[in-house]
């Protein structure tokens, strides 16, 4: 055998720890990191309004590890009796309209009048962009530091249904942690508005004034969902244009059928940048709340939403269960090819796959 001395395989002895580091405290730190708080510890942390416990519990909700599902459900159940004391506000608008800047201005206004604000997002595309909210921390500089605010970027997931469910569960935890105003941002693309609309009490559409063609390119469905339209960037040269847009939107909103809530949607202008008109947005929401709490629409809507989300969750999980079934997964591609080339009808193929699944 050759001498070990020159071999590349020779391992030198490790460098000893300098004496300044106490090995016992090092071990304690390592041990602490490994210990995951128990479900009960997380629940009591949340109920004591501890943001770290809240964040950790949300991480469990967002986890795709099946071991975490049960824990997450236990936490949600533990928090549920303390949830529901809030107003949930959905905010949508196309990219660049000023959602982040608005939420910063609106959120800091709300904390200044004593509210506790949680900002969440539903953005299924965030799997790629890694979350829009914290991406622009600079736009929410003040709110991020605000002790009475909590900001959490969108959960990631393959389906909108999955992302939306996680956000809905997160709302419950935030409310149990003492947040009384929940803001849920969504990007103005795809079906995410509908998902957010079905989890909030009030839906706010953010717009900017254009060149007199306000109503163009705006999806009718979104207009119909809106409880208020806020025209942002009403500052500088834009003030007059924003006022004009306000008139035009007001006229357009009157053409829609009356809402079940009895509420007539309102249009207002603001500048998120200059922080003007922000209080009037809150006044509109307060007026809405007074109406729907008195006519009991508020409770009825939440009850409907709960039922809707139960059914949605069943749909989502049945679908997942079907598509992740190994026998389905292995034959699905083959069926897809056959359907595409007319070798089998889509209906017959679906029947065969379902039969395989139920076998
Ligand atoms: N003049 C003016 N500019 C504004 C106002 N609000 C936002 N902006 C600017 O508009 C741009 C877009 O603002 P954001 O807040 O990032 O818009 P967003 O809707 O969050 O955009 P996405 O995150 O890309 O969907 C930024 O350059 C802002 O500074 C406003 O009230 N007035
Ligand atoms: Mg943004």
Give the topology.
Blueprint: H1 23-34, H2 39-47, H3 51-62, H4 66-79, E1 87-93, H5 99-112, E2 117-122, H6 126-129, H7 141-145, E3 149-151, H8 160-176, E4 181-187, H9 192-197, E5 202-208, H10 220-225, E6 228-232, H11 239-253, E7 266-269, H12 278-294, H13 297-324, H14 326-340, H15 346-358
Parallel strand pairs: 1-4, 1-5, 2-3, 2-4, 5-6, 6-7
Helix pairs in contact: 2-3, 2-4, 3-4, 3-8, 5-12, 14-15
The site of guanosine-5'-triphosphate has 18 residues, from α5.
InterPro entries: GTPase_ArgK, P-loop_NTPase
Protein name: Methylmalonyl Co-A mutase-associated GTPase MeaB
Family: Belongs to the SIMIBI class G3E GTPase family. ArgK/MeaB subfamily.
What tags apply to this protein structure?
Helix Hairpins; Single alpha-helices involved in coiled-coils or other helix-helix interfaces; binds guanosine-5'-triphosphate; Rossmann fold; 15 helices; 359 residues; alpha/beta; binds magnesium ion; 3 domains; GTPase_ArgK
- Quote the beta fraction: 5-15%
**Broad structural category:** alpha/beta
CATH topology (fold) name of the largest domain:
Rossmann fold
The helical percent reads 40-55%
Q: SSE order, as H and E?
A: HHHHEHEHHEHEHEHEHEHHHH
Give the full name of the CATH homologous superfamily of the largest domain.
Answer: P-loop containing nucleotide triphosphate hydrolases
Mean pLDDT: 88
Termini distance? 63 Å
Family: Belongs to the SIMIBI class G3E GTPase family. ArgK/MeaB subfamily.
Keywords: Hydrolase
Pfam family, one: MeaB
EC number: 3.6.5.-
């Amino acid at each position: 055998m050759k001498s070990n001395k020159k071999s590349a395989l020779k391992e030198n002895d490790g460098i000893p720890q300098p004496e300044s580091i106490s090995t016992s405290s090092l071990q304690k730190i390592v041990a602490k990191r490994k210990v995951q708080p128990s479900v009960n510890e997380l629940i009591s942390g949340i109920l004591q309004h501890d943001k770290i416990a809240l964040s950790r519990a949300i991480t469990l909700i967002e986890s795709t590890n099946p071991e975490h599902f049960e824990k997450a459900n236990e936490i949600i159940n533990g928090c549920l009796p303390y949830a529901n004391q809030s107003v949930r506000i959905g905010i949508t608008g196309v990219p660049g309209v000023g959602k982040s800047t608005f939420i910063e201005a609106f959120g800091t206004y709300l904390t200044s009048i004593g509210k506790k604000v949680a900002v969440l997002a539903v953005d299924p595309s965030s799997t790629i962009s890694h979350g829009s909210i914290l991406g622009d921390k600079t736009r929410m500089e003040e709110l991020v530091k605000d002790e009475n605010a909590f900001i959490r970027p969108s959960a990631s997931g393959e389906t909108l249904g999955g992302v939306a469910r996680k956000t809905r569960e997160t709302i419950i935890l935030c409310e149990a942690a003492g947040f009384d105003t929940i803001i849920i941002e969504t990007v103005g693309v795809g079906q995410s508005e509908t998902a957010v609309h079905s989890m909030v009490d009030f839906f706010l559409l953010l717009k900017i004034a254009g060149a007199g063609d306000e109503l163009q390119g705006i999806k009718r469905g979104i207009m119909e969902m809106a409880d208020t339209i806020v025209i942002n960037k009403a500052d500088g040269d834009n003030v007059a244009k924003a006022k004009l847009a306000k008139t035009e939107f007001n006229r357009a909103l009157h053409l829609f059928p009356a809402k079940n809530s009895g509420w007539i949607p309102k249009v207002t202008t603001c500048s998120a940048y200059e922080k003007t008109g922000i209080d009037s947005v809150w006044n509109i929401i307060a007026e809405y709340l007074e109406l729907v709490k008195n006519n009991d629409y508020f409770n009825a809507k939440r009850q409907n939403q709960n039922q809707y989300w139960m059914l949605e969750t069943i749909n989502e999980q049945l679908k997942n269960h079907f598509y992740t079934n190994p026998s389905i997964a292995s034959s699905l591609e083959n069926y897809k090819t056959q359907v595409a080339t007319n070798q089998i009808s889509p209906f017959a193929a679906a029947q065969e796959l379902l039969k395989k699944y139920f076998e």
